[in-house]
Design a protein that fits this description.
The chain is an alpha+beta fold and 161 residues long. The protein is built from seven helices and four strands. A four-stranded antiparallel β-sheet has the order 2-3-1-4. The chain starts with 13 loop residues before the first strand and ends in a 20-residue tail after the last helix. The protein binds 2'-deoxyadenosine-5'-diphosphate and magnesium ion. 2'-deoxyadenosine-5'-diphosphate is lined by residues 63, 68, 72, 102, 120-121, 123, 126, 129.
Length: 161
Amino acid sequence: MAALFIHTKSMAERTFIAIKPDGVQRGLVGEILGRFERKGFKLVGLKQITPSRALAEQHYGVHKERPFFAGLVDFITSGPVVAMVWEGDGVIASARKLIGATKPLEAEPGTIRGDLAVNIGRNVIHGSDAAETAAFEIGLWFEASELNDWSPSDQEWRVEG
Ligand code: DAT
Ligand code: MG
């Protein structure tokens, strides 16, 4: 059943990750990037951007009726964000595990929020929560030309075959 082991670029799973303004201001960019790199995922898009209100409101559109929405948009537009796309099998769910629970005081030690944050309104990082939101958020934050297909030279040491 060799077909089971065929991987093509079109099958590759991708997720949208953003280091929020608090993470950038606190000098946590390298620390956070390093956790995804060390796990073995592949970075295929990376830029620093201060989001417009329109971008922020679309990104958090699912929360637009929530009482914290205006404050959330104020916060996410308050300074540079480091926007990323990471690729790999299972990367959407795995990234959410690396990130930890939304409330940092409930996030497990060892997770990004568990180790690096204390407040829900300053929880340093965003990660897409499902395949549909990942596709939406990647398309919202990145042009197709900003994403790179490439093969890490040590790929065979990360995945089989
Ligand atoms: P997550 O970022 O873990 O996907 P979410 O989608 O429920 O969490 O909410 C998006 C962001 O909104 C979250 O990272 C922080 C903020 N937020 C959520 N609930 C909040 C609350 N009750 N008070 C203040 N900010 C909140
Ligand atoms: Mg969310």
